[in-house]
Every structure is written in C-alpha cells, then in structure tokens.
C-alpha cells in the first residue's frame, strides 16, 4: 500500500486554509431567523405541486432554497407546536392527544420545559411571536411572553374569525392580544394582514437603527391563523386571475386564503430586502400538519388528512432559504426530518447547542452539506388512550411504516385519498381499517398497499418496537373546563388568570 507524501508547503497552505475557515466560523454573524408556520396547509396546496394554486413568492424562495421533502409534523396543531417549541415527542410530554387544547380547559405546555425562544435568547437574539399560540394561556406563566418571547401579537386559541378576531366555537369571545392584554384596535382587520404588518414593524424597529447595523440578531416565530377554517380571505384574492380559474368553489375560496399568505411572505421578504439584509436571513417555511380536505385543502397524492397519522396528515410542504448560510442551495433535501428537529437545527444554525435529552437532532450541518440527516426513526404520534399511532424505521435497505389506528375505525371508516386534481381518478374509501397496517414507503409513499401479510417479520419487529415506546408514554393530564374562563367575565375577551 502506498502513501502520498505531503510537502511542508502543502501543510502550511492547509493550515492557513483551516485557520481561515475557523476564523470565518468565529466571526460570521448569526443569521436572523423567521419561521413561517402555516395552519392546516396541505401537501398539495402550493404551486409547485398544483399549478392552480397562486404561490409565486413561496415558489421563488423554494426554488432558490432547500426544499424539505421529508419533513413530518404531528397530526394536529397543539401537538405539532409543542414538538417545535420543545424538541420532544408529544407522547413524552402528555400532549399526544388528537384533541387540541380547548379554550376553557386549564392545559398548558409543561412549564418546566425550555422552549425554542429561550434557547435563542441565550444566544443573544431578540425573540418575537406573531400569530397563533395554542399552547395554553389560563395562567400568565403559560403565555408567550413568559415562555421566552420578548413580544407577542396574535391569538391564544386554535380558531378565530379572521375579521372579527373572535373564537369561532362555543361562547365566542375576542381572542387577539398584544403582549398580555387584548388588542381591541385590531378588530375588523384581516388577520393575515395584521400579522404581516406586525412582522414588518418588528424588522424595521429591530434592524433599521444605527445606520443599518444591527446590535443583535432577531428570531420571529410567525404562526399564521390561515389557512385554518373558517376559510376567509379578501375578495381580491379570489376574483380576477389569482384563483378565479378554479372551478371547485371550496378549492377556489381556499386558494384565496393561501394566496393571502403567499403575498404576506412576499411583503415581508420585500421589507428585508429594503433594509439591505436579504443575505442575513434564514427563512423556514412549513405547515403544522396536513390539510383538512373538507375545507378545500389537498394532500394529494398522499393518503389521509389532518388528524390522521397517514402521510397526508403528517408530511408537510416545507423549505428553508438563506443562500449565505446554505451555500449548496438550491436543491431538494430528502433526509428524514421531524418537527422535533426544528429547535436543535435552528439553534445549531445560530451557533448554539441544546440539551442531550431531546428527541430532536441537529441537522444543520447535514442540510449545509446535503447529506443524510442521520435520522432512522420517527414517531408520527403515539396515543394509547386515543388508540392511534405510527412509527417509521428506515435504513440502507428498507423503509417501513407501522400504522396503529383504531381511532379511524371508531369513526366507521379508514382514511383514504381526497383532494385529487382535475382528471385524476378518484380512489375508493377503504373500509374497514385494520388495527395494524404496514407500508413499504420506499416503493409506496402513497400508502396504497398494506404489506403486513407479505412481511410478517417486519410487522412483528415494528409492533414490538411500538410496544417498547409505549413504556415511555407520559399519561395525559386530566384537564377540566373552568367557569372562570368565560369571556363575558373578563370584558368579552379571552385572557389569562383563571387557573
């Protein structure tokens, strides 16, 4: 075996290059970060998958960035937001239920868990939450400004009328706040416009002083109330050319709401560019779960919808953009990622580290180099009481997913495929839904064929693994509706201080 002789000159040059790289790493400014989180947007609700949708700004960022082809969230929004904020699977924090936080119950994101904005603050960031919280508010300590955010502008709960800014279920009540008090002046204005304007204000206030030189980086968590129902948008997005060509009335109206989000992202990036800081930002865009097909969303060609552990309920449209920080972009990243990976990855991009006991992994270097994320297993969810869960195990030779779903069976059916584009064949509903299903995602990402009979050894391996994971499950706390939560007691608005 021969050895290559390295000259002293080569050694010196190598040392200089390495030293220069270390110096660059030490002196490079941390990125400003905006995380755009859309509510209930389907896998197929973007123009690069369904050309009928109007998302030119999102497509421009995706085409110039890194598309996250295999990013997974939880089936519903509270659990997904908890995973993003803590880096822990919800079944380990008692938040695994397929029932989201209700308005009148005294539930909160566990107060002892360190959150994403708290990690960012440790790294010198100013931190701001804009939009939907949905992680508890009955006590002041559970609200965003007490969970790591310097400011909060938005709603506490899961669903509001986009103009009245009132809770759409039960007792109604105003749900729009600035920091810790109701912000009545926002009433009557369209929610997406309000969140856009607030984000633009933060950018100008934080980054335009001192001749354009920022004193500290900014982290903004922009969680749209769109495109959750009620499906509402100004008529300008539905008429004329943006969505008027869509024949299905539900899809056309839904398209208008998506178009409003797209315009919002475009306006925010225009503000960044006007500040001369387009190279100083890292932008992450994702949905919190799959789309709700009954309201016009589409997860085609994936199976399932919001609330299910099938691919359509959990695999989301997503990308990350920032060419200065992702020099290999544009490309499509096929590494396996989960919502729990967001906190360690963003903290890693900012130059920090997180606790070793997180379920999330730091995929920042893998994203920069476009190599495997290193993740071989994800837990879609695990809810023993709700009788629903799924796990996936991937290695060099196989990629199998186990689905345990008695929840759907109780509803009298099993999730199939909805939201097919014009001309696509409509697939039949699947009844009944077996307790356990096995899919080989390497050849069947649409979950057409249950192969549990074909691969009994794999089925046993994954059911054994599922049983093992159940031993780590934290029992869901008992929460109750409390009379003091009612908005008429607090002047017509939902607020904290009743638990």
UniProtKB/TrEMBL annotation:
Top-level taxonomy: Eukaryota, Metazoa, Spiralia, Lophotrochozoa, Mollusca
Signal sequence extent: 1-19
GO molecular function: metal ion binding; sulfuric ester hydrolase activity
Family to which this protein belongs: Belongs to the sulfatase family.
Protein name per Swiss-Prot or TrEMBL: Sulfatase N-terminal domain-containing protein
Keyword terms, alphabetized: Calcium, Glycoprotein, Hydrolase, Metal-binding, Signal
Domain Sulfatase N-terminal, chain residue ranges per copy: 31-351
Cofactor: Ca(2+)
InterPro entries for this protein: Alkaline_phosphatase_core_sf, ARSB, Sulfatase_CS, Sulfatase_N
Organism expressing this protein natively: Littorina saxatilis
Keyword Metal-binding: yes
